[in-house]
Design brief:
Layout: H1 3-55, H2 61-76, H3 84-105, H4 111-120, E1 133-140, E2 145-149, E3 152-155, E4 159-163, E5 165-173, E6 176-185, E7 190-195, E8 206-207, E9 209-212
Parallel strand pairs: 1-7, 6-8
Antiparallel strand pairs: 1-4, 2-3, 2-5, 5-6, 7-9
Helix pairs in contact: 1-2, 1-3, 2-3, 3-4
Length: about 210
């Protein structure tokens, strides 16, 4: 091999190895963050399910998913990304605190402040999170019916914790839409709706009467 070609080939190989090492170095934190996020989200989901059971409410995915994603982002941006056990503990604690407050007060402290407080084992205060919550209960005539709100389905008579805003509510009996309603849910407001229709009657969905408790 010509000396110049040999030197050029050596330099090219060195650059390739350096580039590969740089890529691996850059990807390592991404992999650690992804693994941390998976652990944190699993722990947070478990905590949300537990608090929902204790408080006898339903917390649909549409209510919890954004919160859980933010919990994961906040925790995994810290040194806890390398400590799965501790990250899971913090995730469970923060998720429990958040939804305890959301259920009782219709709002909660912002998530980064809750995470910082949990890591430092303090009771530090933070600003309120931008999310606001209310509750909705729909009773049905048929045991076979289910309630659909936004993108979530739940059992009739369940007390659902939902973000405030415009709600489109449907009751589905088997495959038929039998009742529907539209309402505006505000912070700490609680509504109840009653559906007295079943599949096959009437031909079009009934407008439910919804009242604020």
């Amino acid at each position: 091999m010509h000396p110049i070609t040999q030197r050029t080939g050596g330099k090219t190989m060195s650059k390739l190895l350096a580039s590969t090492a740089l890529i691996i170095t850059c990807l390592a934190p991404i992999g650690a963050f992804a693994e941390c996020a998976m652990v944190v989200k699993e722990a947070a989901h478990g905590a949300v399910s537990a608090i929902a059971k204790i408080r006898d409410v339903v917390i649909p995915d549409q209510t919890s998913s954004g919160v859980i994603n933010e919990v994961a982002t906040s925790i995994c941006a810290t040194d806890l990304s390398a400590d799965d056990r501790r990250a899971a503990e913090i995730a469970a604690k923060v998720s429990t605190q958040y939804f305890e407050s959301a259920i009782r007060l219709g709002k909660a402290t912002e998530i980064p402040a809750l995470v910082e407080s949990a890591i430092d084992s303090t009771n530090g205060l933070g600003a309120n999170d931008y999310r606001r919550f209310g509750a909705l209960t729909v009773t049905c005539k048929s045991d076979a019916s289910v309630v659909e709100v936004r993108s979530s389905r739940m059992s009739c008579s369940s007390r659902a914790i939902l973000e405030k805003g415009e709600l489109s509510v449907k009751v589905i009996d088997r495959t038929d839409d039998v009742c529907e309603a539209k309402l505006t849910l505000g912070e700490r407001q609680e509504f109840s709706c009653d559906c007295q229709a079943v599949a096959g009657a009437p031909a079009i969905p009934l407008q439910m009467a919804c009242t604020r408790r």
